[in-house]
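step: validate -> pass
step: tokenize input -> pass
step: predict -> running
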Amino acid sequence: MAENLQSSTPTQRSGAFTPGSSSVGDAPATEFKVYKPLSTTSAPLEELPDSYFTPSLADLKAAQATLSARTRSLVDAPLQVRAQREAAEKSKRDRWPNTTIRVRFSDRTQLEKIFPSTDKIRSVYAFVRSSLRDDVKSIKFILYQSPPKRDLKVSDPDVRDLSLAQLQLAPSSVLLLRFEDESLNGTNVPAPLLPSIAASAIELPKPPSVDTEPPKVEKSATLPATASSTRTEKKVPKWLKAGLRK
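step: predict -> pass
step: emit ->
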């Protein structure tokens, strides 16, 4: 599926790596990040029942709607005027010129790199393979999305000829990785990365904290007008005034 790539050992710089040149084109070296799996010191996750993994009717409907929309867009694409297609693609490129791809291994180690949105999926495969240990480089793997499951195979002409933007991966996406050798897919099997890359892994950035308390609204110094203050003073009729004077 993915081509065999020969890569020089990356050199560390400021918590990120700059991989050496590969056999795919003459693209300049670019930095990427490596994130550690979730800390084992954190509270253990609650074991979920099997029923949790059974999709509900709503899940199935949502997945079917997504697949239907994707199929409809592929079917309707040839019907668009060429100029309209080019204008739509240019708009996407202008809006998202780069795509951040995060590749997650079975142990939840993650590789992250920014690609031009015009790149093909083979560039992501080349990046991942160049980061693997030498004894694992020859083992085939598949990058996919889930849910719904969607394999992004280089051998698939409907995938390999499309850009990352056309594959709906822009501006950012998480791709899962599955090796053909099942012994590498266990959740307790460390990601088979080059030692120098694995040693540079950093903690995942924490999500921004959100205040649970609603913001306090300062009370206005002026009190609302009461009914007595807003009520206009009643005028006494003239005939009543005359009667009172007698």
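step: describe -> Strands lie at 11-13, 16-18, 33-35, 98-104, 110-116, 141-145, 150-151, 172-179.
step: cleanup -> pass
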